[in-house]
Amino acid sequence: MNSICIVTDNTAQFITKSFVGKNNTRIVPFTIELNGQPVPQENSISLDELPPVATAELNPRLISPSRELFRQLFLDLGDEYNEVIGIFSSSKLTDCFENAKAAVSSQLGSPKILLIDSLSTSFGLGYLVQIAAEAVTKGANCIDIERKLRNIIQRTYSIFCVPGLSYLHYSGFLDQAQAIIGDMLGVYSIFAIEEGFLTPVEKVRSRRNILLYFQEFLDEFEKLESLALIQGVPIGTQEIRTIREHIRSNFHNSIYSEHVMNLPLALLFGPQSLGLFAIEKESNF
Question: What pLDDT sits at residue 269?
Fold first, then answer.
């Protein structure tokens, strides 16, 4: 019997599709509903098929894996593994972590299950999963892995530029009036994920100002372990190029990756959103 399995959800985005320890990693999918109908995972739509503005007719819904699904998954993994580490998207963004927690509370017998709220999503979540999976291959135990992951969580920062607020309304982050007013003003809203919460931090009126804000965000750090740019439907190739050049010139020793926003994240924030994740280098002092 194998030792430890890592379980996560499909908001996670990884530095590379193949990573050390992937064979002992399981990814649980969200259910996506559009126009009142579930979208089969095997026939998933592309970002540019999603309208820029969510409507009542579209009614985009991201439904977390159920308690029963987690209960059955953990039972099945008990036949193959001694221990399971579940690392999920922030409990302030989705119900995934809480559903897994409820399943564990009713679980009897093996395997031993440790749950970690990433307080993040997308690359912030995927990075934790990769670190945990690699640690398992090196023989680390659950206690050491948990300590390492919680240290990284404290050093993970992210911001998102959201051009329209309608998807945030249907995700439950804003009321309808806030979304309508935001769209009418035509501004770009900047949000940070702080302590797992999606927190508004700024509003800007042009793409150039988006670029300046992202650069100011990066300039707050002296050394970074890893960076990732998450792109939805492109807002402008020149802006992306400038951000990329700024990262490469100022953080050339950091691991840098770019990703197309996955569909679950697009339903949460909107398909035209742009995200930036920064994982600060651990201090030696």
Answer: 95
Do residues 73 and 111 touch, judged by C-beta distance below 8 A? Answer: no
Average pLDDT over residues 275-279: 97
Query: Which residue type sits at 121?
Result: T
- Nearest CA to 173 among 261, 51, 267? 267
Instruction: For residues 267 and 97, give the distance between their C-alpha atoms in angstroms, rounded to a whole number.
Output: 18
**How many residues comprise the chain?**
285
Distance of CA 42 to the CA centre of its chain: 21
Q: What are phi and psi of 236, to 5 degrees?
A: 160, 120
Query: What does the pLDDT average to over 102-119?
Result: 88
Q: How many helices (H) and strands (E) does the chain have?
A: 9, 13
pLDDT above 80: residue 141: yes
Phi, psi of 192, deg, nearest 5:
-115, 150
Report the pLDDT averaged over residues 35-50. 82
Whether 1 has a pLDDT exceeding 60, the answer reads no
Asked if residue 35 lies in contact with residue 60, where contact means CB atoms within 8 angstroms, the answer is no
Query: Which of 9, 156, 176 has its CA nearest to residue 95?
Result: 9
> For residue 269, which of 195, 173, 126 has the smallest C-alpha distance?
173
d(CA 196, CA 225): 20
Residue with tokens 């031993």: 112
* pTM over cut 0.90: yes
pLDDT, residue 108, reads 67
162: its two tokens:
């959201």
Any idea which residue has 């992210």 for tokens? 158
Nearest residue to 122 via CA among 215, 10, 18: 10
Pairing between β-strand 274-280 and β-strand 224-231 as defined by DSSP bridges: antiparallel
Helices 237-250 and 207-219, axial angle in degrees (round to 10): 10
- pLDDT score of 43: 61
